[in-house]
Amino acid sequence: MEIILSGYGKMGQLIEKRALEKGHEIVAVIDPVKDGGVFRSVGDFEKKHGTGNYVALDFSAPGAAVQNIKDFAERKIPLVVGTTGWYDKLDELSAFVESKQSSMLWASNFSLGVNLFYRVAAYCAAMIDPYNEYDAGGYEIHHNQKADSPSGTAKTLAEIVLKNMKRKTKTVWDKLDRPPKPDELHFASLRVGAEPGVHGLIFDSSADNIEIRHTARNREGLVYGAIVAAEWLEKAAREGKRGVFTMDDVLGRMNA
Ligand SMILES: NC(=O)c1ccc[n+]([C@@H]2O[C@H](COP(=O)([O-])OP(=O)(O)OC[C@H]3O[C@@H](n4cnc5c(N)ncnc54)[C@H](O)[C@@H]3O)[C@@H](O)[C@H]2O)c1
Question: Residue 83: CB within 6 Å of ligand 1?
Fold first, then answer.
């Protein structure tokens, strides 16, 4: 697989390492901030390399993702999008990618464990919903360099709870200067130290507390999942399958 890395920070550099170990080739790195052998934009890359059967992975910055998605779609380069913080434009960008007959696979979290956790969360929320004595809430913790909050994973988890608990109709994020209403799911974010990522859901009654939590030990699970997603997307493109995909397509299992 010939890979273009868009964003050469913590994730981009680890993806490079693991992809090379798997026998893939890194044809280019695009990052407007980093020096040395790095292209500033997709356009700069195209001037040197022209077109080819590339697959790109974007782990850049929330403010950069929208333009990068458009730039790769314009050139019909299949793109795995790991960058978070742009999902308010998901419908618009999905339509754009489809209009260009390109392909994109996005996930708020590429780790296999988190994608399994989504299914556990869906099951718990649906099971607890009829028992009104249990309220529900959520939290997420990440390192103090993370640029956006809440995390994309937290947003996905909150959507899963709303979909599976009829009693909860909306999520309220972070600081509340009033008690949450019964139909509100309160979800908090904490930024501290070097934490790679914790996501939890709490189901709490006056008698007891049920908590489910996913804790990432490092970024390896994310990197592995992103490379597997890129392999899946590249194969799909070669077989003529284009469009917008998620990890559900890669895992080929039920939708949470
Ligand atoms: N979906 C997932 O599974 C997942 C996992 C980890 C991180 N992320 C997200 O991925 C993004 C990057 O994470 P990170 O930890 O590598 O961040 P990082 O800050 O270490 O690296 C980001 C890199 O992107 C570069 N960049 C900035 N603007 C760019 C542009 N226009 N084009 C290309 N590169 C650009 C920066 O110079 C930097 O080198 C963040 O949004 C983060 O939340 C998602």
Answer: yes
